[in-house]
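Researcher: I need the complex structure. Ligand is WTA. Inputs:
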Amino acid sequence: MNDSITTRAAGAAPATAQINLRLLADGHGIIESHHGDDEQRFAPPADFAAQANVGAEAYVQASRDRLGFWADQARQLHWHREFTEVLDWSEPPFAKWFADGEINASFNALDRHVLAGNGDHVALLWEGEPGDRRSITYAELLDEVSRLANVLTDLGVEAGDRVAVYLPMIPETIATLLAVARIGAVHSVVFGGFSADSLRARIEDAEAKLVVTADGSWRRGKISPLKPVVDQALAAGTTVEHVLVVRRGGNEVDWQSGRDIWWHEAVPQASAEHEAQGFPAEHPLFILYTSGTTGRPKGILHTTGGYLTQTSYTHRAIFDAKPETDVYWCTADVGWITGHSYVAYAPLINGVTQVIYEGTPDTPDWGRWWQIVERYKVTVLYTAPTAIRSFMKVGRETVLAHDLSSLRLLGSVGEAINPEAWLWYHEVVGSSRAPIVDTWWQTETGAILAAPLPGVTSTKPGSAQRAIPGVALDIVDDAGTPVDPGSGGLLVVNEPWPSMLRGIWKDPKRFVDTYWETFGDRYFAGDGARFDEDGDIWLLGRVDDVMNVSGHRLSTTEIESALVDHHAVAEAGAVGIADETTGQAVIAFVVLKRNQHLVSKSEAEAVLRRHVADLIGAIARPRRVYIVAELPKTRSGKIIRRVLRDLAERRPVGDTTTLADGGVITAITAQIEQASTVKPG
Ligand code: WTA
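Model: Output:
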């Protein structure tokens, strides 16, 4: 423990205080393990360490003066008005960072680079699924964003107003986020795979004034319509005054004159002059809805100064961003937090060139991503374990058919990467050379909280390693007492961090209850974890009823509500079970109403799987829906999902003492056996 960086808190001492300064004082030192024999470790290659943006001294600096460290990172940004306060934590859990400063996100992402003479530097290398391509410089992007900012203002969008965004991965999407931020409005991106119902609920909750969408987008060789979904979402009347539509798919769309506006008719003719004004650091930047433990998604609220500070710092430190030479590619959709922090904001703030790809990795075949890496000479690739596992299934030949020698650094996010996938990623994609940074964080945390520093850390496949400089993580038991290395516990953040969520939209009580109720002014992440003997963190998965399917969060309750919404369904229980490719898969158990004649038992599975996809979106479609006579419950009538999980994974059911009726297990087992002889509907 002595010779390693650790963020374990000792009693009330600042959590970073235990860092061993002596060992780390020599800068890019490589941290050695005492347990080198029983575990594979990968020291950073010497040439990588020698050129890394951030060395081990960052841990030292941050541990000596945590707030000073973050203030230094914040000063890397352009402030319209300098801040004098760093952190105000006088009313936990409502943090204020750099509160008296004023800043503009869009200015930092664009104007700053153009003013510095880098307007001709390429910001976006975009590739559409059918193979069309665009290369957009920082100056061109600023031009487009300025025009759009003027259009938004003309449409009556003001600072503080919410703008819903339902767009595919096209350059206009990045422009939209930056234009909304530029005028101090608040974007709320809804993933393009979500249904009309999900979109409507999010538009209503945020009371959006405007929706930006596209006619449709390319997915798996076909047009996936978007505007029709928006029309459906708005059909029952809303707060939305206008719908701005990008022409992308070329598909026929209905048009509501007065409300609907084509992007290509409005934006090019607007003025390209737009002065970005500063907004207070705590001005809202965006809302992003994510699944919690209830059926109602939470609108996670992020503000400006702290968010930009930590996303851009982590991008420099963990992805080693080099604006002159890097071609960075994060494969996340902008509908998720990763697509906000590490596509729309951090890379542009840091002035790098990034690749954006519209379609799916298997179109026209599984070589597509590797062709893109080869074509644009991608240097840094950031993706999810579920994608890696899909490529493992397809086979290494598909990857190795391409020249990937440009790759110098690889990242992973969304769920724990299993050591097997880590090693494959390292060997096949990274030519056994590129370091891997496994990054742990959440929609709520806004930016990465745990990861290796690629020039410093000896990485261990499967471990998210350690808290980044300036962040204090701990693993505690139910009573909040730190657990011993090796024991599982709950992951908490001991101190506020700049990019932390500032609340749940319109629901401060839920914010307090969800994240702060358990341990007072320490943030509870909802994840289980353990420290190993070296102080490295191993994530153990969610401890609540949140599932993780292909790196996307879904709540069991959300799926159960969708099932029960169907007229034929009396009761439903949903669980996530382990899946080789997607991490988890949704399995549902449904009790049909006794006298219903709407669906036959044989059709029920197909009908209900479709129903969930219609209501929430295709990502939520259960892998299987088992029709059962009864659900396992406690005496007080609560569904015991743990038993359902055991049954679905076909392993012996654990403790059943709380079960009201033991017979239910035999009955469900028989129903699963019977159902598994037929294909899912
Ligand atoms: C999980 C995605 C292990 C975790 C950025 C977390 C991870 C949830 C990792 C957040 C990782 C994300 N190792 N687990 N590297 N990254 N998770 O909000 O359970 O979509 O709480 O944010 O994903 O998912 P979210």
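Model: Summary of the prediction. Residues 47-470 form a domain with the Rossmann fold fold (CATH 3.40.50.12780).
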